[in-house]
Design a protein that fits this description.
The structure is a single chain. The protein is α+β, with helices and mostly antiparallel strands. It folds into three domains: about 5-160, no CATH class; about 175-245; about 250-360, CBS-domain (Roll). About 60% of the residues lie in helices and about 15% in strands. It is built from 13 helices and ten strands. The protein has a four-stranded mixed β-sheet with strand order 1-2-3-4. A three-stranded antiparallel β-sheet has the order 5-6-7. A three-stranded mixed β-sheet has the order 8-9-10. Strand 5 (about 280-285) and strand 6 form a beta hairpin. Helix 2 packs parallel to helix 4 (about 140-160) and helix 3 runs antiparallel to helix 4. The protein is globular and about 75 Å long.
């Protein structure tokens, strides 16, 4: 879902990150407000004022999204659900969960917290708008506040649509889960509704383009595609979690990994290890002591002509939570870490000692076989063709 992210601040124990795609949204929103919305409703102001209002509106959008997602995160933490952070991206924001909610009640309250927070923020801003109006404060300030009131109401109402993974869709899933007692069935049904809603938005996008509203049509199309894709991915992630639940890293790791010495040259590393074993990462060890790891990414930053003059010691990365995992950790944690870091291999370390390597390929092979066997057997995993296709790409 995300490309390059960076942390901007930490709030109530949660890292707030911005994906690079959110910068595109910020530019588009600022431009739209400064050149279209504010001049339309407040025609007597200067161009410079419109741009300042546009920037203020975009900053208010950021605060509104963070407040919305923070409410999800606080409630999730109250019920023991791990949240790794809040990420802002081109379609808004998301609280990053690493597991499913423990109960329908926790799911419902966590989902409802977002729209409720947006409604509350809209009411607070509206009260401030009335107060500022009475104080005869600048029209530009009142204009930005009016926009933020409208924005938060719109965010709350849109998120209440019962289309998973929107908040309304999660509330629907919670209700279905409570009714049937089956989270998989509830997720499959609510995800199907979310996918259908995505198709409706895509159809409206085509209609808008045919009527000459290209910009509106483009945004409806992108949002529709995002909701449709996210709905399918949410169901796939549930299947992944259930398939790997209780499975430990030590079951999948290679207990005899190939290691490299820090003293060999990068040319030797490429010729004798990378090309021979066709791995992108190798543990670096000296006298049975693990030092870290070296990947093809570190090699690429060194000019090819200098490979013979530099050793692995010059470029390797030390051990960190980003490239290591414990043998008794859950395999799902390893898969999550690989997805977050973009790595396909992790060092399995126990008390500072290298005990193995776990790879994405091994995990995917196990999952593909498990889906295939259990689907043909008792059908416990339901329709699994989506996840299996994903593994084979």
């Amino acid at each position: 879902m995300f490309s390059k992210r960076f942390t901007v601040f930490r709030l109530l124990g949660f890292d707030v990150k911005i994906d690079l795609t959110w910068l595109v949204l910020a530019v588009l929103v600022t431009w739209t407000l400064a050149r279209g919305v504010f001049p339309l409703y407040f025609p007597e102001l200067s161009r410079q004022t419109y741009w300042l209002m546009g920037i203020g509106g975009t900053l208010g959008l950021l605060v509104s999204i963070v407040f919305h997602e923070l409410s999800h995160s606080v409630v999730a933490r109250r019920y023991g659900l791990p949240i790794t952070g809040i990420t802002l991206f081109i379609f808004g924001g998301v609280a990053e969960m690493t597991d499913e909610p423990p109960s329908p009640k926790a799911e419902f309250l966590m989902a409802a917290a977002g729209p409720l927070a947006s409604f509350v923020l809209a009411l607070v801003l509206y009260a401030a708008l009335l107060t500022m109006g009475e104080a005869d404060l600048p029209l530009s300030v009142r204009g930005v506040l009016f926009y933020l009131v409208y924005l938060n109401v719109l965010v709350a109402v849109f998120n209440l649509i019962p289309a998973f993974p929107l908040d309304g869709g999660r509330m629907l899933r919670a209700a279905l889960w409570h009714w049937k007692g089956d989270i998989r069935w509830s997720t499959r049904l609510s995800s199907s509704i979310g996918s259908g809603f995505g198709l409706v938005l895509i159809a409206l996008a085509v209609l808008a383009v045919l009527q000459g509203n290209f910009i509106i049509g483009m945004w409806w199309f992108l949002i529709g595609m995002f909701i449709r894709t996210a709905a399918g991915m949410s169901y796939q992630q549930l299947l992944l979690r259930e398939a790997l639940r209780g499975e430990l890293v030590r079951r999948f790791m290679n207990a005899s990994p190939v290691t490299v010495s820090p003293s060999i040259s990068l040319q030797e590393l490429v010729d004798d290890y990378i090309y021979q074993y066709q791995f992108k990462m190798f543990p670096v060890a000296e006298h049975s002591r693990l030092l870290g790891c070296v990947t093809t990414r570190e090699v690429r930053v060194v000019p090819r002509g200098d490979w013979t003059r530099h050793t692995v010691r010059d470029v390797f990365k030390t051990c960190s939570p980003e490239n290591t995992i414990a043998p008794d950790a859950e395999a799902l944690d390893a898969l999550t870490l690989m997805a977050r870091t973009g790595s396909s291999r992790l060092m399995v370390v126990d008390s500072g000692t290298l005990v193995g390597i776990i790879t994405l390929k091994d995990l995917m092979r196990f999952l593909s076989l498990k889906f295939e066997l259990e689907e043909q057997g008792d059908g416990a995993l339901g329709k699994s063709s989506g996840p299996i296709d994903l593994f084979r790409t």
